[in-house]
Amino acid sequence: MADVFSPLEKIIIVGGGSAGWMTAAALSNTLGKTCEITLIESEMIGTVGVGEATIPPIRHFNQRLGIDEATFVKETAGSYKLGIEFVDWTRKGHSYFHPFGQHGAEFDSVPFYHFWMQESLAGRVDGPIDDFSMAWAMAKAGKFAHPLPDRRQIQSTYDYAYHFDAVLYAGFLRKYAEARGVKRVEGRVVDAVLDSESGDIRSVQLENGETLEAEFFVDCSGFRGLLIEGALEAGYENWQHWLPCDRAVAAPSPKQAAIAPYTRSTAKTAGWQWRIPLQHRTGNGYVHCSGYVSEDEATDTLVSSLEGNPLAEPRMLRFVTGRRRKFWHKNCVAIGLSAGFMEPLESTSLHLIQYGILRLLALFPDREMSPLLAQEYNAQTAAEYERIRDFLILHYKATERDDSELWCYCAAMEIPDSLQYKIDHFRNYGLLVADERELFKNPSWIAVYLGQNIVPRRAPAIAAMRGEAVPVAQRMSAISSAMSEAVATMPSHSDFLAKHCDSPIT
To answer: Is 263 exposed, middle or buried (0-12, 13-18, 19+ CB in 10 A)?
Structure first.
């Protein structure tokens, strides 16, 4: 006889913001009203708004919830994102683009980048691989249109994500979740009561003395990790020796006349600066290392580089890059900043929230709360954090800059063996080795390797063997022409927004 199924009846989410309301929306969409879901948040606690730039998987999250794209972009004052431009990372005066989508178009069983590398190393291609990125061709022209599904068309070779106001996104999802039965409680959680035998969380206590009980808790309380660390002491793995930035100062500036369809990351003396264009403003921030620059100096650097005067007082954020040793501990899962922080260099903050939620749904517990579920959740999540960590470290390690202490430190620092192994393969043979579960696929690694001047000593052997049978130069020329013709027919990004998802928010 099968064991009796004992479903959860009450779930409490501690904390709002993007993490809390994404969790509430996804749980209510999946569970319906079979389980009572309560979210506790305090209006007195601010939201960390560094997650305004995203990567393509966010589209799948919204689609899973049945959210209409145009409505979502309009209500979050959003814009479209084709990738990230990296300025001054390799060396001052140099830039490259990390596109969403592939480079070129496949015209043989051998990947396009193999042929490009062969032609480039032989001196038969003049220019970076960016020149064969449809996403970059659109981005630098300020154009946007949705990709075509026909794989024979060059317009099928790119992908896209969004920029949006994280506070507006949380509000948008709050309406979605509350319409599906989620109860919001205003208040500040000040304590958690643990079961004396199991060590599980039994209830949380609010500042006003109210006590709320549940069988399962989701910690979305931000950096402080009120439940996962404050109550359950799950532990934290510090990665500052690889990702040394520990501060960010952020300030909005006026919107741009032409809204760029990409994020810009500009390396500075002690870190890097983001620019995220929205319909109602531009998001800006300087991520930096406090060991190499003071908070006042960092603020001055940010403000002096804005396009226009700041629309609000600069806000300083403090963090420690790394992750929880246990993301799911006892009857509590940490989602968002309470689970870890990877800095927003490649816009992964909301992605880690999204996949933390989806993984929770895949391993969803009942009252038995099997430790096997937590074990698998923790193993998968730790591996994902580490794969993303290595990709971020690559940006810092692969630099030719020697003009400041930070960049000298990064160029000389020891890196994880897992990353060094990948670099060695690419530097020696032009080959990409990756776990099939990598968030950042081959085009992303190619963009950063080549963009930051990790150039292979030779192209993969198969390219030379196939090159004699394929008219490579002719095919590459045809791809370049097709890209130019396609971009010429597209509307500007600003016109696309005005026509399809013009936001009333100012």
So the answer is: buried
Distance CA 131, CA 480 (A): 8
∠232-318-80 over CA atoms, to 5°? Answer: 100
For strands 315-318 and 247-253, give the pairing: antiparallel
Q: How far apart are CA 284 and CA 307, in angstroms?
A: 10
Name the residue with tokens 């952020």.
250
Using alpha carbons, list the distances in angstroms from residue 361 to 45, 134, 406, 463.
28, 35, 41, 43
Model pTM score:
0.96
> 265-309: per-residue pLDDT in tens?
999 999 999 999 999 999 999 999 999 999 999 999 999 999 999
Q: In this structure, what token pair is assigned to residue 195? A: 């079961």
Residue 254, helix vs strand vs coil: coil
DSSP H/E element including 263? strand 263-268
**Assigned token pair, 288:** 């930096």
Q: Are strands 282-288 and 271-277 parallel, antiparallel or unpaired?
A: antiparallel
pLDDT reading at 467 higher than 80: no
Query: Radius of gyration over alpha carbons of the chain, in Å?
Result: 24
Give yes or no for a contact between 259 and 494, defined as CB atoms under 8 angstroms apart. yes
Identity of the residue numbered 82: L
| Phi-psi domain of 345 (left: phi exceeds 0; alpha: psi -120 through 50; beta: other) | alpha
pLDDT in tens, 388-404: 999 999 999 999 999 99
If phi > 0 it is left, if psi is from -120 to 50 it is alpha, else beta; for residue 189 that is beta
Whether the per-residue pLDDT at 421 is higher than 90: the answer is yes
In this structure, what DSSP letter does residue 373 have?
A: H
- Other CB atoms within 10 A of residue 478 CB: 14
**What is the DSSP secondary structure assignment for residue 450, as one 8-state letter?**
H
Burial (CB < 10 A; 0-12, 13-18, 19+), residue 34, is exposed
Confidence band for 428, pLDDT divided at 50, 70 and 90? very high
- Supply 56's token pair: 């393509």
Separation of alpha carbons 274 and 86, rounded Å: 10
Encode pLDDT of 59-72 as tens digits: 999 999 999 999 99
Query: Sorting pLDDT into bands at 50, 70 and 90, what band is 1?
Result: very low
- Residue 435 has a pLDDT of 84
150-183 burial by CB neighbour count: b if 16+ within 10 A, else e? eeeebbbbbbbbbbbbbbbbbebbbebbbebebe
Distance between CA 58 and CA 29 in Å, rounded? 16
Strands 263-268 and 189-194: unpaired
Q: What is the mean pLDDT of residues 380-390?
A: 97
Where in the sequence numbering do the catalytic residues fall? 81
Tell me how far apart the terminal alpha carbons of the chain are, to the nearest angstrom.
62
3-state secondary structure of 449: helix
Bigger pLDDT: 506 vs 214: 214
Average pLDDT for 238-261? 96
